[in-house]
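Most newcomers find our protein records easier to grasp once they have seen one. A record pairs a protein's sequence with a compact description of its fold. An example says more than a description, so a record of this kind follows:
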Amino acid sequence: MRDPAGTVPTIGVEEEFFLVDPDSRLIVPAGPAVAARAAGYAGDRATQEFALCQVEGRTRPCRSASELRLELEQVRGALVAAARAEGVRLCASGTAVLQEAGPVQVAEHPRYRAGRLQYRSMMDDFAVSALHVHVHLPDRELAVRTANHLRPWLPLLIAATANSPYHRGLDTGYASWRTVIRHRFPCLGPPPYAASWQEHERLAVTIAGTEAMLDARTPFWDLRPNPRLPTLEVRAMDVLQDLDDTVAFAVLLRALVRTAAARGRAGDPGPRWEAEVLRAACWRAARDGWSGDAFHPATGRSRPVADIAGELVDLVRPALEEAGDLHEATGLFDRLAERGDGATRQRACAAAGAGPAAVVDRLVAATARGTGGGGVSGRPEW
């Protein structure tokens, strides 16, 4: 498989984390202090988030899985160290396991204030931590056609990365409660099908006109051409506990984007699955996670998630092999088959007898594992 430029596109990752008190295990509003301290180690790759109980780590664009792993080690490591220095801990879970009653405290920022005014009480518990993956794809027309091919894979991505069964101390019965919180908003979830970049922009402007979206220039769909970077951004996934899983999902998505982009270049506009169908399929994936059945991207019928994952690897195998990433993808799904998704592991920890507090402790340990560091020389460009 050859891209027009003759190179494998770069990838980048954003990870959002909660900050928790090591004694109470409650989330705490330490984000500004932790982000400022971590910036001393990681520069602008460490930043605060919408909610004061969160921080975000961003990698630079990377050309290989090994380079991405080093970046993640460095950025996660900076956040882990900064959190400890501020007397708190970094926690990779899609929702807060333990949280005091009352609205989430948010940063003083014009966009955040606008969100509070527009969505009102819907924002009270809007503190969720995601994994975002960027794949270099500067052609906006091609990015829209590529996104059309990726849309029906969103349920699989949600199921395989599910890592948020708890919310405010309660088991929600869902594998990804983060997805449920996000999909309450009319402007979040699977993007609408668009035949062109012009139609994509028209849809965003029309939806923003209803006030269901804050800004047409910055749609928050689960899949989008990034408004500021020359990338296609996939935003559907819960943040993952294990750094190796994050690397594997990133290179798997790069292979899927390359495969879909090749079809787009050949004139294939992508399957026209209705947004309502995909939204329903994403809901089921959020409920059942890796161990359940999910929407099949080609037929729409329910199939075991593990079977659909195997078909995905077969589909993108040429792109994985060319980039040297096949072992990353197969290793990821082997691990999921052996231990289950993050939600399964969180519940198993709670069931061992110590409850949600032990879940937080396990998540904190998993988040810090493998963050010994190791620098990345230079800065590749998108």
